[in-house]
Design brief:
Blueprint (H helix, E strand, L loop, with lengths): L9 H19 L11 H8 L3 H13 L3 E4 L3 E4 L4 H25 L2 H23 L1 H20 L5 H23 L13 H11 L2 H11 L3 H24 L2
Antiparallel strand pairs: 1-2
Helix pairs in contact: 1-3, 4-7, 4-10, 5-6, 5-9, 6-7, 8-10, 9-10
Length: 246
């Protein structure tokens, strides 16, 4: 009689998935800084999770490009760089423009309503960010990512959506490390030049996202694609300014 394949008990599976989710969240949000060691003893104490689920989570983080394994040094949070961010932004442009064109062709009234609701949340988060950037960055990033996800949600390609999600996670990690929490990287200052601050203020404003929403809801695929590409280039300009000032 053929035996049934072994499955992981429910509680053990929850611990494994919980360890992965906790580590991924803190790496993406910059709580665990680029280059920071991922030692089992420290992680177990930090998250209250046993060694086994953590040991299982680390290779999965490496597969996602969020951690690296070095000989004799163990796992560390993957590094970031402006060069890699530029590569990610170009990949984002290719993937998101393909998705938004299909979303515009396929989207229905429910999709349109979700876009308007996510834009409202982003507008509120942008206003809060102006008042207190140090405390509201994470909330703004959540709202920003949700807005872009809503624009693309009606597209049909599961593979492209998966790529977009991975790119989005990596971009969020780079944004945190290079722009919002640069002091977490050795040798970097948290101060921004006036030109960079002006560019950053424009990038974080709601107006560009409103224009993008209007183009998508008007089913103007050509304008929406152009605005997405413009959005990417504007973001790159912010980081090129940061790199020039340091």
């Amino acid at each position: 009689m053929k035996s049934e394949p072994e499955t992981m008990p429910g509680r053990e599976l929850q611990e494994h998935e919980g360890a992965l989710a906790a580590l991924k969240r803190d790496i993406v949000d910059g709580v665990l800084a680029p280059g920071e060691p991922l030692r089992l003893m420290a992680l177990s104490k930090r998250y209250g999770i046993g060694y086994t689920p953590l040991r299982e989570a680390l290779p999965r983080l490496e597969e996602a490009g969020l951690a690296v394994l070095s000989p004799n040094r163990g796992y560390r949070v993957a590094s970031v760089s402006v060069a890699e961010l530029e590569d990610l932004e170009q990949a984002r442009s290719v993937v998101e423009t393909a998705l938004v064109k299909d979303a515009i062709a396929q989207g229905d009234l429910e999709w349109e309503s979700a876009i308007v609701a996510s834009h409202h949340r982003l507008s509120c988060a942008s206003a809060a960010l102006v008042r207190d950037r140090s405390r509201e960055v994470a909330t703004w990033m959540d709202a920003h990512d949700a807005f872009h996800q809503s624009l693309l949600s009606a597209a049909r390609s599961g593979w492209l959506k998966s790529f977009q999600q991975q790119i989005s996670e990596q971009l969020r990690r780079h944004h945190q490390a290079l722009l919002f929490l640069p002091e977490n990287i050795a040798g970097r200052s948290s101060e921004q030049g006036e030109a960079t601050e002006a560019l950053l203020g424009e990038a974080l404003s709601i107006s560009n996202h409103t224009r993008l929403m209007d183009a998508v809801l008007a089913r103007d695929a050509e304008q929406a694609v152009g605005l997405l590409r413009e959005h990417v280039q504007f973001t790159l300009a912010v980081y090129q300014s940061v790199s020039h000032n340091r």
